[in-house]
Amino acid sequence: MDFNFEEKYEKYRATVRDFANREFTRELIETCDSGEKYPEELRIKTFNAGIMDFTDPWKVLIGIEEMCSVDESLGIAATTPYFGAEVLMLFGSDYLKEKYLSKVSQGKAIMGLAVTEPGGGSDVAGLATTATPADSGYMLNGSKMFITNGTIANYFVLLARTSVEEKKHHGLSCFLVDSSWEGFKSSKIKGKMGVRATDTAELQFSNVKIPKENLIGEEGKGFYYIMTFFNISRIYVAAQGLGVARGAINRAMEIVKAKGQAYSSQESVQFAISEMATRLEAARLLTYKAATFLFNFNPNPTLTSMAKYYAAETAVYCTEKALEITGTDGLNSQLERFLRDAKILEIWEGTSEIEKLVVARNLLKEGSVN
Fold first, then answer.
1. Domain ranges of the chain
2. I want to staple 283 with a disulfide (CB 3.0 to 4.6 A). Which of 9, 260, 298, 314 is the partner?
3. The domain 86-220: what is its CATH number?
4. Could you tell me which CATH number the domain at 232-366 has?
5. What is the pTM of this model?
6. What angle do CA 238, 239, 242 make, to 5 degrees?
7. Over the stretch 96-132, which tens digit does the pLDDT of each residue have?
């Protein structure tokens, strides 16, 4: 068992770290946070620099972790233009990949994933949006809420109900929806607590015509496609948590050291730093272990859910603890924003409570812990 990364990954980590430290300027961070502005120019720079290499999932994980350690909001905004693309990669037809995915991979279009609905929350199978059979395709009606890239995405991987079944997670199907189609409407959500550089919106569909060739995979298999996607995306959310936690610890230590030896030598401060660093290391090992299974085409949903919820809770813990030991100095620094940004990690891609249910149900089914 080797805990060292290959040299190419360490070089890549250094490249991304240099990029983020250079391009994530204080001015850009504050402008996007206060103005809730999506950093389109940064997206283009990130693409042109080859920062997000989707041919290698380890580079994606490392890239996300490094950028979020500088600023989570900008880091996520720079990496989500491809959000949902894995569904097309795994289950989409050659036609869909050529027409839509190729433009996304070339940086010419932005993707989004439309699953969450008003009142639906974590109950993915309880969604109400429908795609009923119509001439040469389907007629889409309903709405989605808290959709990342909602007002800027060109295309969405969307989950809708195509039939009513005894088991509600049956009868759900995935579609590729173009935001330019008639009947599609998006409304930006403002006043978010954190990650304000990301674009979040409500989507509404009124008799949107979906061509039959825009069905992704098989009809009725959409729920399973989305769950497969979550097994992938939850690893990347865990990476976001690692970045946020590390960024908070480093900033806290800078402030603590600036306060002088008398303050930094206090046991309560040193205990806090030790606890934060230990939790980060535990979260990183768990995330990398889960990623190893996933990236070797042998996903372990139990480990994935453990990694997602623990890394997310570690990010929140570290940002809170960092503020506790830095006091007013921390409140007047980037740590205030780090805390606001961290909270969403416990919510999206499955709340911490959902992840814990997944873990417990899997363990009870297996009957023992290895």
1. 7-80, 86-220, 232-366
2. 314
3. 2.40.110.10
4. 1.20.140.10
5. 0.94
6. 90
7. 999 999 999 999 999 999 999 987 767 787 899 999 9
